[in-house]
Write a structure and sequence with these properties.
- The protein has about 110 residues and is mainly alpha-helical.
- It has 3 helices and no strands.
């Protein structure tokens, strides 16, 4: 049966494969106090790792939300404003063109 140290080493997210191999190979020479010390360090570092990963996920979520808000704002405000501007310009051009045609008709 695998010892608590072996399980902790194998499940660790902070150890490299080389570190795992060295720790597993040195386990027979370790005293109980050393094993407890290694387990405590692993537990602390796993907690730090999880904290960092949660902070990173929160930052990514915040960036994604900010980006989505910008897209929503663009779609809700910028595009309709641009469309109104284009439509008013088209309408003005059309009215100018029609008034030009009417003035030509009046001349004849």
């Amino acid at each position: 049966m695998a010892s608590l140290l072996q399980i902790a080493i194998q499940n660790s997210k902070v150890l490299t494969d080389k570190m795992r191999q060295k720790l597993l190979a040195s386990e027979p020479q370790l005293s109980e106090a050393q094993i407890q010390q290694i387990l405590a360090v692993l537990k602390e570092e796993e907690g730090n790792y999880e904290k960092i990963m949660q902070e990173d996920a929160a930052k990514k979520t915040a960036l994604a939300n900010d980006y989505n808000l910008k897209i929503r704002d663009f779609n809700a405000h910028t595009i309709p404003a641009a469309m109104r501007s284009i439509e008013s310009k088209d309408k003005a051009d059309e009215e100018e063109s029609l008034s030009g045609l009417l003035s030509e008709l009046d001349k004849t």
